[in-house]
Amino acid sequence: MAPRLCIKCQSSKAMLKRPKTQEQVCRECFFALFEEEVHETVVQTKLFKHGERVAIAASGGKDSTVLAHIMTTLNARYGYGLDLFLLSIDEGIAGYRDDSLETVKRNELQYGIPLKVVSYKDLYGWTMDEIVAQIGTKNNCTFCGVFRRQALDRGAVLAGANKIATGHNADDVAETVLLNILRGDVPRLGRCANIITGEDSSLPRVKPFKYAYEKEIVLYAYYKKLDYFSTECVYAPFAARGFAREFIKDLEAARPMAIIDVIRSAEDFIFTTASEDKLPQPRTCERCSYISSQPVCKACVLLEGLNRGLPRLGVSRTRGRRGEKAGLHPDVERIVTTQAASAVRWTAPGVSVDKEAVGSSSHGIVELAAAPVSSSSVEPLPAVVASCIAQPKGEEGCAPEGASATALLQEAHTGQGQGGSAAARAGDTVLGLEGGHVNGSGG
Amino acid sequence: MVRVHIEFSGGLELLFGNQKEHDVDVPVQDGNQGLTAGHLIAWARDNMLRERPELFMKGSTVRPGILVLINECDWELSGAAESLINDGDCVVFISTLHGG
């Protein structure tokens, strides 16, 4: 085939066919088009405000490296006025994360923006390798996703950021839409295609690459010779997302616009009032004050499971089938009815718990939080977490100004804040829907 | 025989003995006009791949999600699997199937 000229500039040889638009363009025009489209997305969706301090979630992988490059470029070119820095999470996966962190350290030098690293070990006391050794490889991605989400928030708060930017691309969002449909996760389905999530919170998250095709990100990085790390997480072969990814890739091969179409469909989903009532309302976790849709946030539930040697805690569902009452997970029920006092949990030292609140009922994890615990076995929150707990938003659980993190926790535990007895929290507390937006390529 | 310089990246190199760059001589079948990209890929799978062929090929072509560049040009411009590979050409396979 005779070499064609670029359809845009008509002067250089066409080097690639844009997966998104099928246009045949040269390298320079491709760069310009790609960058321009991201800029348009940023402007039209009002992604940033002048002067914001933005944490770029960076893993050293293709998306986050290109994101760091593009954000730095556009920030300078169009005068966004943003204070950018790189935020990396060390999950403690040998042979994967330690190598990719080296890449981010190089990115710090290459783009001239500072780097902050936060580790699971520091925040939670567990590395992913230790977690997998404990629970196996079936639900480890759940742990990693939930912990990483919170770790990013904690790290961003520690570094004084107003916003987090992640490198999620169009393929990622389309895969997530599919996953949520397959799982019947209605609340997540309504949120997952949003370009800004948590805009009412103190730390919204944005996805500047929401409409950028993964192939284009890779081609951009290749032609620009950007330095990125490209090995799969060692636990990835076990992830459910792999199936969604395979499907999306096949769809793309058949009809490239399918990816954008899936995203547009999700954007247009309207949920009827009946299902809206079931949507969980944001509140704060009683243990760590992180944002949560349940009384105890998912990360705390998962950690409880890890620390007690109950791998299924927080992972398996307790919602009953139609016609049946919701039941407690067998492990939880055992603890509640025998009132085990040897639990290790995070709480303010010396806090006592309302013993009357304990009893067997179908309120799932709420009972666990109220189980009596001897004061000698309580553990204070790791200092790094306690120091960066943000003030909870909203009327519930508001502490007077200047209250310390310990006081906040104390309030929550003695039920003076948003508390009330367990019985008051009636309803279907499913150990399923919670905070973490589990995703395969988060950083 | 057609001499081809092949590069693997994006994690694909792990399937090919952890080696990113290879220089190979690929035989052309009698009766064919030349070496097509599709034929090169099948040859690479049969002669160079150390493990997990399903991660490189699906059916008779590369797994969706693997980009192919011939002399820095997207193979979509030259007919994809029907593209002709000439002596001395450089073919790059980039996998996009990993975390970002």
Structure characterization notes:
The complex is a heterodimer of chains A (443) and B (100). Chain A is built from 17 helices and 10 strands. With 443 residues, chain A is of the alpha/beta class. Chain A has one domain: Rossmann fold (3-Layer(aba) Sandwich). Chain B starts with a strand and ends in a 5-residue tail after the last strand. Chain B has 1 helix and 9 strands. Chain B has one helix at residues 37-47; strands spanning 2-9, 21-26, 35-36, 57-58, 61-62, 66-70, 73-74, 84-85, 89-95. In chain B, the strands form 3 sheets. Chain B has a 5-stranded mixed β-sheet, with no helix packed on it. Chain B is mainly beta. The interface between A and B is medium-sized, with 38 and 24 residues.
Task: Report the biggest beta sheet of chain A as strand number plus sense, adding barrel if it closes.
Answer: 6 strands, mixed
* Class by SSE composition of chain B: mainly beta
State mean pLDDT of chain B (0 to 100 scale). Answer: 90
Low-confidence sequence ranges of chain B: none
Strand content of chain A: 5-15%
**Shape by Cα distribution of chain B:** globular
The helix content of chain B is 10-25%
CA-to-CA gap between the ends of chain A?
A: 40 Å
Helix content of chain A: 40-55%
From the N-terminal CA to the C-terminal CA of chain B, the straight-line distance is 39 Å
Pfam families (chain B): Urm1 (PF09138)
Subcellular location (chain B): Cytoplasm
Keywords (chain B): Cytoplasm, Isopeptide bond, tRNA processing, Ubl conjugation pathway
Cross-link (Glycyl lysine isopeptide (Gly-Lys) (interchain with K-? in acceptor proteins)) (chain B): 100
Quick summary:
The complex is a heterodimer of chains A (443) and B (100). Chain A has 443 residues and is of the alpha/beta class. In chain A, 41% of the residues lie in helices and 7% in strands.
Task: Summarize this structure as a short list of keywords or feature phrases.
heterodimer; A: 443 residues; alpha/beta; 6-stranded mixed sheet; two-stranded antiparallel ribbon; 41% helix; B: 100 residues; mainly beta; 5-stranded mixed sheet; two-stranded antiparallel sheet; 11% helix
